[in-house]
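Holo model, cobalt (II) ion. Inputs:
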Amino acid sequence: MTILTLHKYPEKILSEVCDEVTAVTDTTRRLLDDMLETMYADKGVGLAAPQVGIKQRLIVVDDKVSEDGTRGPHPLRMINPKIIEKSAATIFFNEGCLSVPGVCAEVERHQQITVQYLDENGVMQTLVAQDYLAVILQHEIDHLDGILYIDHLSRLKRNMLIKKVLRNQ
Ligand code: CO
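Output:
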């Protein structure tokens, strides 16, 4: 497996809408494995393909990863994930992003969502996720539409964080 290069704000690919995956192949599976490897290497809990420079609707998530980067037993590999239901109830969570390094901020998300996706074998799956997992999934699926968590903040707060990110680079 290969650790891929992370693309960071303000690279253009992070604000682009990704393409649907039309066929699940060995190349897709290898890419998902490499994305997981890259995510664990940076102690992340989720990663979307545009973050490694690939404009495809692919995400990986592991909400069971420990602080030292030890992986959970069942990391998720999702192809063309789509939120088909969301709760009216919301939660606030302090989010960060490997592509927006060195900052974090509280974002409001749906407390529960239902996601439909293809697994790495091309089989349609449905997952109901709550709380932490729901937050990660909403963050990662946003990436596929060119949306970063900072885009959910007020303009003032967003500009403040961006200034800090650019200063740190
Ligand atoms: Co992110």
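Strands lie at 46-48, 58-61, 76-86, 90-97, 100-110, 112-118, 124-130. The longest helix spans residues 26-41.
Archived with the compound record.
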